[in-house]
Every structure is written in C-alpha cells, then in structure tokens.
Amino acid sequence: MIGLEVHAELKTLTKMFCSCKNDADEERPNVNICPVCMAHPGTLPVVNKKAVESVVKVGLSVNGNIADFTEFDRKNYFYPDIPKGYQISQYKYPIVSGGELGGFKLTRVHLEEDTANSKHDRGDFSLIDYNRAGVPLMELVTETHTFPSAEEAGLSASKFAKEFQLLLQYLGVSEANMEKGEMRVEANISTTDDEKKFGTKVEVKNLNSFKSAERAINFEVKRMVALLEEGKGADIVQETRGWDEMKNKTFSQRSKENSADYRYFPDPDIPKFKLHEVFDLEEMKKTLPELPWQKRKRYKEQFGIKDEDVESFVNDFTLSGFFEDVITDLGTDKELAKTASNYITSDLVGQMKKKGDVFKYPHSYHFAELIKMVSDCTINSRAAKDILEILADEDDSPKEIAEKKGMIQKTDENEVRAIVQGVIDLSPKIVTDYKGGKENALMSLVGQVMKETKGSANPVIVKKLLVELLK
C-alpha cells in the first residue's frame, strides 16, 4: 500500500511570510534573509496572498474542494534548519481537500514554509543556509492505494509525480525542478499478508528524481515482503528511511513521529481566512490554462497523432508551440498533421539533441512547406531529412533548397524509364535472381536506381517500372 506526499516550492517573488526574495538560483549563502524568516523576537508573519492563490489554482485543477475557512498552525519540532523551533504549516483546515490526479485520489493540498538548507560537506561540522527558510511550500498528500507488486507500485508513483510536476508547470505556480530541490517526493509504504489489517508504515523521504522514487519504492516493498516471508514481520518498524542513490537501497534514519508529537496548534500571529470571500473561485476556474490531460485529449482528437508524439508535446512547451505554429500553416488535414508530428518528434528532436545549445528552430512556415512537399511527393523522405539539416543552418525555402540540390523527385515516367533500363542492363545477376524468385532482388534494383538519380526518382514509380520491364 502506497501513499505519497509531494512538496513543491511555489514560484513567488517573495517568501511565505516576509518580503525576502524567493530565489532558488541564489548561490551566496544567507543573503535572502530578514528578522522575520530568522525568527527574531517581536517579528510577525504576513501571509503571501499569491502563494495561497497558487494552491487554490491547483485545487481547482484537480477538482478538489476549496475550503471556505482555513488557518495556519504551528508544527513544533527542533532541528537546526527551523529557525523558530516550529514550522508554520496547516493541520486541521487545509486549503484543498479531495480531488484526483494521475490515477491517485487526493487527501489534501496545504501550504507551509520550507526549511533552511543544511550543508554536510564540510568534514566534521555542518553549516546552514537560510535562504530557503520561509519559501512557500505546497504539500500534496494522496490517499493510500493498493498495488499487486513492487514494480507496479514504483511505476505508478513515478507517473503520478511526473503528472503533478506537469500540472504545476502548466499552471505556472512552480518550476518544480527536482534537481534544484524545488519538488521532493516522499512515500509512505506498508505491506501485509493479512487482508484484515494494515501493515506497519514506513516513510521514505526526500526522493529527488522520478527514477529514485520508482527504485526506492520498489526496493522498500521487496525488503518488507522478504521480512514477512521469513517470519520477521516484527522487524518492520514505523520509521523514516532515506534512499542511498549509490547503493540503490533504503536506510533507517529515525523513528517516525505521529501528529501528536508535533503538538499542532493554531498560529496566534496569523489571522483566519475565508477563502470564498477572498477569491472568485468560478472566475478563477474559467481562467485556468489548458491542463496536461486536456492537451492530450485535444491532440489525439484534433490531430490523430500517436501516443508517444502526444507525450513529447505535452512534456515540452516549446516543441508543442512549434508544432501548433506548423499546424496553423498546414491547415486542418490530419494526415499532414501526422507527417509533421513524425518529422518533429524524430528528425527535429534528433537535431536538437545533436546540436545542443546551438540548435535553433526553423521558421514554422518553412517547416510546413517541407511537410507539404513530402506529402505531395515533390521530394522523398531522404531528401526531406537532408533539407531539414540544411534548414538548421540556413532558414531558406525548402523548395528553393530542393531545386538547387537537385532533390525534386522525377515523376516523368519516360525520363525515369531510361534510367531504370540502364540499371537493369548493368545488373544481369540481380535480374536473374529476381526472375528466379528472389523478391528482395527487386529492392536492390530500386536502391541502385535511387543512387543513380541521387534520390530524386520517385521510388513508387521506380518499382512500378522495374516490375514492368522485368516481365
């Protein structure tokens, strides 16, 4: 049984309860701090309205219930990265309850402040960077879901985390960059050999990549199952475990706290909120952008492109923007859209990977012209790939490039017939093989004609003429 907790830093100009800059890219330690986020005596927190609005947007997107009444609580625990000795969070009255995302039912989405960043790479002592302390942090908690295997549990959790990351990016409320720690996944895991009772819950914390989340859950489930099968179920204790990326295994960190251990109580320095009065929820829902699952559905229905291409576009705003610009130039023909999609997700993405930072997109109308030339057999696919390579360096008209390079397909049968006959005359052995029943020999002859014409002959016409002349 798996339940997920995902933390995401929100993209606001300032921190959650003060006016310090919220900057995940700041490399100098302890520069974005002030008396409020450093918990100096006498300071008072002021709630960042933009952060609350961001969580409301997420709630509306997942069809959750937006609380009318909400409040902030103090979550008491004593770590060096918590300057106040407590974290401002939400307990009884979260901003969002319920909803569904990526196949998981949701329990709640609430808002809190992030902790400071501990640096443990200094040998026999650690340092604390408080730039992150007080950054608005959204926490999403899922319901517990049951899976039949460790592999399925890990894969489902990874897919959910990816979908949540996409949602945050589409809404523009978080970059959710896991490499920078802007999004962290935690998994609550239990296994049982008795359907009438739950197993002991273990939490694996701070999984900082989708692959880590998948592997950690997979490992931990198998560890628990092995203990149960050996009759050592008592060795599974409620605890927090970490994930060792190098060893590909979890390790014990500390015994797991219960909510009572945190001694939650409403923060007396922060007023209560009536969110239905603060925000026009109906208007906010109308102004939400197209969401990932809506885009998937539209691309399938409107363009009829294959699932892998759809995912490429859903996951890359720039790529999908280019595709839609090309479609604007091509019109509503689904076959043209499919051809364009194939060339973008294979050849253009291939160029992107090959060229790296120096890659630049061609003009969409030039790309659309190229697709039309392929579709009406003005050029063949080999020529199209070559022209695409040229377009990456000189964004010229594909038609002009094809004419200069002699790539326009020869479709005059009389002109092609003479070349085909010449190839037949020079290939007596292949001709004998073909007439002897070796069908593959025909394609060898097609290849020779294409080579002779530098790829400019229409292969359909070439094949037709070969069959005729070899009768």
Give an overview in words.
With 471 residues, the protein is α+β, with helices and mostly antiparallel strands. The chain has three domains: 281 residues, no CATH class; 113 residues, no CATH class; 57 residues, Orthogonal Bundle (Arc Repressor Mutant, subunit A), CATH 1.10.10. Helices cover 42% and strands 16% of the residues. The chain has 16 helices and 17 strands. Strands 1, 2, 6, 7, 8, 11, 12, 13, 14 and 15 form a ten-stranded mixed beta sheet that branches. A hairpin with a 4-residue loop joins strand 14 and strand 15. Helix 2 runs antiparallel to helix 3. The radius of gyration is 30 Å and the shape is elongated.
Summarize this, please?
Helix content is 42%, strand content 16%. By secondary structure, it is α+β, with helices and mostly antiparallel strands. The protein folds into 3 domains: 2-282, no CATH class; 292-404, no CATH class; 413-469, Arc Repressor Mutant, subunit A, CATH 1.10.10.
